[in-house]
Write a structure and sequence with these properties.
Layout: E1 4-7, H1 15-23, E2 28-31, H2 46-59, E3 64-67, H3 79-98, E4 103-106, H4 116-128, E5 137-141, H5 152-162, E6 167-173, H6 174-179, H7 187-200, E7 206-211, E8 213-214, E9 225-226, H8 234-242, E10 252-254, H9 261-279
Parallel strand pairs: 1-2, 1-10, 2-3, 3-4, 4-5, 5-6, 6-7, 7-10
Antiparallel strand pairs: 8-9
Helix pairs in contact: 5-7, 8-9
The protein binds zinc ion (2 copies).
C-alpha cells in the first residue's frame, strides 16, 4: 500500500511531529527543521535525536521527508545571500541526514533576468558545497511558475543539469502542476503530464508527491493550496491523477491548509476515500 502522510509540526519539540503523525494514523510524514522563514537553525540535542529515531522506528513511519526552508536562494545577486544560503542548505541536509530522513525537498529559485545557464551553474555550485555524500536524498520540487521547474520538460532538464550524488530525484506537487497549466480535471491534462514524463524523463525519478488542491484555476501560475476536493482540482481531478499507474506506489504528503489537526483528519479521509473508489 502506498504511504500517506502530512506535513507535521515540530513546535515545542521535534517529537511533536511524530505524535501528530501517529494521531493522524499516517504512514509517512514531512517536517521543517526550523521556522522556514528564518536563517537560524537550532542544533537538536543528541538524546532528542535518539528518541526521535526510536519512536519513528517503533511506529514504522516511512519515508521521513524534510522540507527545505524558503530563504535558501543559491542564485541570489547578493553574495551574502548566496553564502548564507549555501551554509543553511548544507546544515539542513546534514541535519536531515542525522535524523535518518529519506528525502530533503527543495524548490529552486528562478530569476527572470538571469539566463538558464547561469541559474544551473550557480545552483549546482550550491549543491556541490554540501561537500559530503549523505544517505538523505535531495528532491527538486516542481513549482507553479518558473522557467526552470514549472514545465515537466524544464524540470527534468534542470534536474539533469544540477544533479549530484546528493540530488537524486523529484517531487511533484499537484497544486503547482495544476497552476503551471496541467489541467488535471481533464484527460488531456493528465495525458500531457504523463507523456512529457515519458518523453523528457523517467517516472522512476519521481520519489514523492505533494497532494494539494488548488485555490486558483489551471494555468494561473499562482501557488495557493486548498483542502482536498474543495479547490479547482476537485475530487474528480484527484481521481484522474491518483489513477496514474506508474505513480501508484509513490508516497503522498498533504500540505493542505491547517488550522488544527481536524483539518488533516478531513483531508486524509478525503484522500483515502478517493483511493478506495479507485480500488473497487
Ligand atoms: Zn509542495
Ligand atoms: Zn505550494
Amino acid at each position: 500500500m502506498r504511504p500517506i502522510g502530512v506535513h507535521t509540526s515540530i513546535k515545542n519539540t521535534l517529537l511533536n511531529s511524530i505524535a501528530e503523525a501517529v494521531e493522524l494514523k499516517c504512514e509517512t510524514f514531512q517536517i521543517f527543521l526550523h521556522s522556514p522563514q528564518v536563517w537560524q537553525i537550532p542544533e537538536f540535542e543528541q538524546n532528542t535525536i535518539d528518541e526521535f529515531k526510536r519512536q519513528r522506528q517503533f511506529y514504522g513511519l516511512n519515508p521521513l521527508i524534510v522540507h527545505a526552508s524558503y530563504l535558501i536562494n543559491l542564485i541570489s545577486s547578493t553574495p551574502k545571500t548566496i553564502s548564507s544560503s549555501r551554509y543553511l542548505l548544507k546544515r539542513e541536509v546534514q541535519t536531515a541526514d542525522l535524523l535518518n530522513a529519506d528525502y530533503y525537498v527543495i524548490h529552486l529559485k528562478d530569476n527572470k533576468d538571469m539566463e538558464k545557464e547561469e541559474i544551473y551553474s550557480k545552483t549546482k555550485e550550491g549543491f556541490n558545497k554540501i561537500d559530503v555524500t549523505v544517505s538523505c536524498k535531495i528532491l527538486l520540487e516542481n513549482t507553479a511558475k518558473s522557467k526552470i521547474t514549472a514545465n515537466i520538460a524544464d524540470l527534468f532538464e534542470t534536474f539533469e543539469r544540477v544533479r549530484t550524488d546528493n540530488v537524486a530525484g523529484l517531487c511533484i506537487d499537484t497544486c503547482h502542476l495544476f497552476a503551471a497549466g496541467y489541467d488535471l480535471t481533464k484527460d488531456e491534462g493528465i495525458e500531457r503530464f504523463t507523456e512529457e514524463i515519458r518523453k523528457y524523463g523517467d517516472f522512476g525519478l519521481i520519489k514523492l508527491i505533494h497532494l494539494n488542491d488548488s485555490k486558483t484555476p489551471a494555468g494561473s501560475g499562482i501557488d495557493r493550496h486548498e483542502h482536498i476536493g474543495k479547490g479547482f482540482i476537485g475530487e474528480d481531478g484527484f481521481k484522474k491523477f491518483l489513477k496514474i499507474k506508474e505513480l501508484s506506489s509513490v508516497p503522498l504528503i498533504l500540505e493542505t491548509p491547517k488550522k488544527s489537526l481536524q483539518d488533516d483528519v478531513k483531508n486524509l479521509l478525503s484522500v483515502r476515500n478517493i483511493l478506495r473508489t479507485l480500488e473497487s
